[in-house]
Write a structure and sequence with these properties.
Phosphoribosyl-aminoimidazole Synthetase, Chain A, domain 2, six-stranded mixed β-sheet, alpha+beta, 2 domains, 60s Ribosomal Protein L30, Chain: A, 25% strand
């Protein structure tokens, strides 16, 4: 498939649905009209074959995940997703692959009112997908990393550790049982949470892409606070509990495994039940924000754990691993 054939396919299959998309795919740039009194929230994620997804990942899963991880960033800010641009670099663009990629992207968008309004394609030795997502929110209502308060609860949506376990299952996926397949699905098709529902309830938030402890650390650093976390309170899916029987190994995956794309947030204890009622997924309290900086880990008995040993595995793109 040639470059302009792909652009034509995107334009035909992803026609604009939003009234505030003044001009979408087909010109040198898109023209967008955010609502009055709203701020524009912008994020970009780049996914590279062999680093962010296995080389043999199906095209539809790549399309889905590329969109989902960007929607997760907008959710962490409390933004209403509105527009996407898609940049694709690949050794070759095969028609079936491109249409499957578009299918996956459309599935990730689902019923959300989101338009794909532009992008770029080029040839590259390595498959690379870079998506920019744009959303809106009322002025001053963003969930930011620097807003955690002493006394806040620390909570996470959904379950943790599934995607990291799914990656370990990937080489044997052809013979995988039901639990392993469920974990792999969490790796290839993460579920972006609805962060808009947390505006006015959560103080600070971040999406868990690089591992819970690493990402929570960004909130603590930006807010100049510390936290005490009960690692035995970290939520685990039934599939993870059955598949990873060793509790220490499971704890490591939950605390440091990346790619879950759940939300980690802080909020006042008085707002916990309202936040739970607002979300369409579980919200589990795992700790509390403290005045003393740094991260302190305990187990269910209150025993203090070695934070350095447990938190070492958080993902860093440039640490040489």
């Amino acid at each position: 498939m040639r470059e302009f054939e792909l652009i034509g396919a995107l334009r035909e299959r992803l026609r604009p649905r939003r009234a505030d998309t003044r001009l979408g795919i087909g010109d040198d740039a898109a023209i967008l009209a955010p609502p009055p009194g709203h701020e524009l929230v912008v994020t970009t994620d780049t996914l590279i074959g062999g680093r962010h997804f296995p080389h043999d990942t199906p095209a539809a899963d790549i399309g889905f995940k590329s969109v989902a991880v960007n929607l997760s960033d907008l959710a962490a800010m409390g933004a209403d997703p509105a527009w996407l641009t898609v940049a694709l670099a690949a050794p070759v663009l095969r028609q079936a692959w491109c249409h499957a990629f578009i299918d996956g992207a459309r599935e990730a968008i689902g019923a959300r009112d989101i338009d794909i309004v532009g992008g770029d394609t080029t040839r590259s030795e390595t498959l690379t997908v870079a998506i920019t997502a744009l959303g809106t929110l009322p002025q001053g209502s963003a969930l930011r990393r620097d807003a955690a308060r002493v006394g806040d609860l620390v909570a996470v949506t959904g379950t943790l550790g599934d995607a990291a376990a799914g990656l370990a299952c990937w080489p044997g996926r052809a013979q995988a049982g039901a639990d392993a397949r469920a974990l792999i699905a969490r790796l290839t098709r993460p579920t972006p949470r609805d962060g808009m529902r947390l505006r006015g309830l959560a103080h600070a938030a971040i999406d868990v892409s690089d591992g819970l402890l690493a990402d929570l650390g960004h909130i603590l650093a930006a807010s100049d606070v510390g936290a005490r976390i009960d690692v035995d309170a970290l939520p685990a899916s039934p599939a993870l509990t059955r598949h990873v029987v060793d509790s220490r190994q499971r704890r490591q995956l939950q605390a440091t495994g990346g790619d879950d794309y759940e939300l980690c947030l802080t909020l006042a204890p008085a707002d916990l039940e309202r936040a739970r009622a607002a979300l369409n997924c579980p919200l589990t309290v795992i700790g509390r924000i403290e005045r003393a900086t740094g991260l302190r880990l305990t187990d269910a008995t209150g025993r203090v754990l070695d934070t350095q040993a447990l938190s070492r595995a958080g993902w860093d793109h440039f640490d040489g691993r």
